[in-house]
Amino acid sequence: MSDASALTKREDDAPDVGELTPPDRTLMGPGPSDVHPRVLKAMSTPLVGHLDPSFVEIMDEVQELLRYTFRTDNKWTIPVSGTGSASMEAAIGNLVEPGDTMLVPTNGYFGGRMKSMAERAGGEVVEVTAPWGEPLDPVDVERAFDEHQPDVFGFVHAETSTGVLQPNVPELTEIAHDHDALVIADTVTSLGGVELRVDEWGIDAAYSGPQKCLSCPPGASPLTLNDRAMDKVLDRDERPRSWYLDLSLLEGYWGDDRAYHHTAPITNVYALREALRLVAEEGIEARWARHREVAGDLKAGLQDLGLEMNAPDEYWLPSLNAVRVPDGIDDGAVIDHLLAEYDLEIASGLGDLEGDIWRIGCMGRSARPKNVEYVLAALEDALAEQGF
Ligand SMILES: Cc1ncc(COP(=O)(O)O)c(C=O)c1O
After folding, report:
1. Is the CB of 186 inside a 6 Å radius of any atom of ligand 1?
2. 81, 92, 110, best to mutate for ligand 1 pocket (most atoms within 8 Å of CB)
């Protein structure tokens, strides 16, 4: 017989963890960015099943909103369950077959991740080189194509590790298509914040993440493929190495059948829907303009503080402002000061630029004058602490 008091008493080995009270940060790092209250509210609405007729309708709406945001008519436009790396691996793992050659860039951290994923997919990897902090030069891309005849070409539209925006995208895709190659674009830090036109620019596949310029928590990550890319996926000799990310199987869920493949992260899909609704309300072109304008004020303010941007103005990436750490300044101490004194997140450099730059995001809901003023004032104080 059970003792009633035992039912209310915490068992000795049950962890006594307190209620969740995360700090109220202002997120000005490389992502996640501040989330709009409407998105948080959408995440607290009731769960339905992933095959519920009401959810099937939500899936359609999310796909339509994603097409608008990517500037594409691609049928195969879906949120992949997982973070940006999942949609990245879905693109690379499905479009690179064993024996294929993929051309990847060396000008930042995420080109390195592309390489790693292409190798795991059984591909052979060749590189087009450019220094960290510079975009790819179409002349080098053309040369790499002539030399290696790759089947797939990947580039990073907005390199989060260097704060560099890749210009000349239509020129790059034309080179690839002249050589019968498919183009995969990493648009994780550009989608919804920086001009991106998937169809007009001839991008065959683009992947992204929700936690940057869409200001949505991570968990469901945008991916779009045109028919040419999807034909290759459906016509593979060998199945992709990942079952979970096999787009020919995911087609069964996100395509016409709406049949079970895996249990979609329903709440993340709600969140993405609301975040994309905010994009549509603002208008995609107006949103790109806002990012340019607000981040332009941030850049000017940083320069007024005596700081130097990592990227030249021509390649400046509004959504990610990479700033050189001045000589004699401890970059980590500044980051710690901002977090401790201002509840403000910015990030240090990554890879080759570790210790050399700070990365200050200006993405989605974080791309507001209020955030810019706050980060500039806080940074001025943190630098003054170190006698700058
Ligand atoms: C350019 C780029 N590609 C890919 C990724 C990977 O995305 P995630 O960290 O969401 O898996 C990131 C994340 O910061 C990124 O900035």
Report:
1. yes
2. 110
CA 107 from chain centre, in angstroms, equals: 17
- pLDDT tens per residue, range 213-270: 999 999 999 999 999 999 999 999 999 999 999 999 999 999 999 999 999 999 999 9
Residue nearest to atom 16 of ligand 1 (CA): 160
Domains of the chain and CATH, by start: 26-32+283-385 (3.90.1150.10), 37-281 (3.40.640.10)
Please name the helix (run of DSSP H) or strand (run of DSSP E) that holds residue 294, with its range, or none: helix 284-304
CA–centroid distance, residue 215 to ligand 1 (Å): 14
Whole-number pLDDT of residue 120: 98
Partnered with residue 128 across adjacent β-strands are: 105
Pocket flag, ligand 1, residue 84 (CB < 6 Å): yes
Q: What is the DSSP-derived secondary structure letter of residue 11?
A: P
**What pTM does this model have?**
0.97
DSSP notation for 229-282: HHHHHHT-SS--S-STT-HHHHHHHHSSS---SS---HHHHHHHHHHHHHHHHH
Ranges of residues in the chain with a pLDDT under 50 are 1-2
Question: Ligand 1 center to residue 388 CA distance, Å?
Answer: 32
**Pocket-testing residue among 104, 166, 188, ligand 1, by greatest number of atoms within 8 A of Cβ:** 188
Among 109, 160, 216, name the best residue to mutate to test ligand 1's pocket (greatest count of ligand atoms within 8 A of Cβ): 160
In tens, the pLDDT along 313-364 reads 999 999 999 999 999 999 999 999 999 999 999 999 998 899 999 999 999 9
